[in-house]
Amino acid sequence: xxxxxxxxxxxxxxxxxxxxxxxxxxxxxxxxxxxxxxxxxxxxxxxxxxxxxxxxxxxxxxxxxxxxxxxxxxxxxxxxxxxxxxxxxxxxxxxxxxxxxxxxxxxxxxxxxxxxxxxxxxxxxxxxxxxxxxxxxxxxxxxxxxxxxxxxxxxxxxxxxxxxxxxxxxxxxxxxxxxxxxxxxxxxxxxxxxxxxxxxxxxxxxxxxxxxxxxxxxxxxxxxxxxxxxxxxxxxxxxxxxxxxxxxxxxxxxxxxxxxxxxxxxxxxxxxxxxxxxxxxxxxxxxxxxxxxxxxxxxxxxxxxxxxxxxxxxxxxxxxxxxxxxxxxxxxxxxxxxxxxxxxxxxxxxxxxxxxxxxxxxxxxxxxxxxxxxxxxxxxxxxxxxxxxxxxxxxxxxxxxxxxxxxxxxxxxxxxxxxxxxxxxxxxxxxxxxxxxxxxxxxxxxxxxxxxxxxxxxx
Length: 459
Hints:
Structural class: alpha/beta
CATH topology of the largest domain: Rossmann fold
Oligomer: single chain
Number of strands: 9
CATH class of the largest domain: Alpha Beta
Number of domains: 3
CATH architecture of the largest domain: 3-Layer(aba) Sandwich
Order of helices and strands: HHHHHHHHHHHHHHHHEHEHEHEHEEEHEE
CATH superfamily of the largest domain: Vaccinia Virus protein VP39
Strand content: 15-25%
């Protein structure tokens, strides 16, 4: 089809009497408008039609790449964006977008080359220097990261994200007083900035200044009474009105916002829970035979999915975050994915539905584990296993469960044994484990396994 060909756009409204015909420029304009409005399916149809007519159309390649990344297919996205850049190498935004895709995919050095080219093409762009700061931090080059953030701020003193990112960097370097200054700068520029408020509270509680952290979150909640993050972190820092588990809206908001960079950030934190659980499954159940009904409870972006698949004849994932599930789906390892609150969804399952339920760092958002453990016990077959990780409280902690200032719950080992026994689960083992690193320090956790009485079987 020639470049001047006409297109039939997707049906956006009730069908008109005659089809609308668009040329290439009009089709691209409509596609971009749909893309910006979040109508990804319609935008994709038009990008595909443009590319069918002109396979190397640079704009269509580029924005199809951006859309493909939004749908979780980052390797494919990077290929499309590189093809667009090959045709128009002088557009700084395109190199910047490529850097974003590569960085979120954990391809840090390739992202660095893309950001460096963007900075060469547009040396006065504050956003590019901010992205370079993020990249240098991922590369463990903190001095260069700080220089890039400060360059972004010099170019645009009102750039809130650069102030916040600089604060996060300084906080990670234990330069907490300097971090407080950056967070305060960000808040002064935009008092409603969620990231800066949360980070300022985090800096205060890290310094042991819990009253000041509490004031930050109380002020935030006063200004935004419906904010689930303000409500949750106020409870965590003050110890007042502590919920039995993190509210659904809190979990969904946090993880929807985190979904795009979740895998890369966890890799940076040396996240080990999926591998620990895989080892426990192998120890308890032996070599994989693709014979079990398996539930990945709180599957997130699906990091456990490829590890569990060899044991599963049926692998189901459930999570509260739509953004996380959108990242899990392209892995192609799940037989089903559901957006739902975990306890209610498991409780509604047919009794004896699963031979194995695995939950990696999800139950750390639950304080009281009794209800979810009872639901899991009901959903397991006789002889079926529940395995999960949570963050650890020392045995001499005053309370069996604690909502920590960072917003996750810690549990004592004796509490875990008690609640599993109360749910009718036995053969319980609670092993100490390092789940990941935070602030350069290992996060202490428990690797827990328990079995439902009866002879093993599968549904």
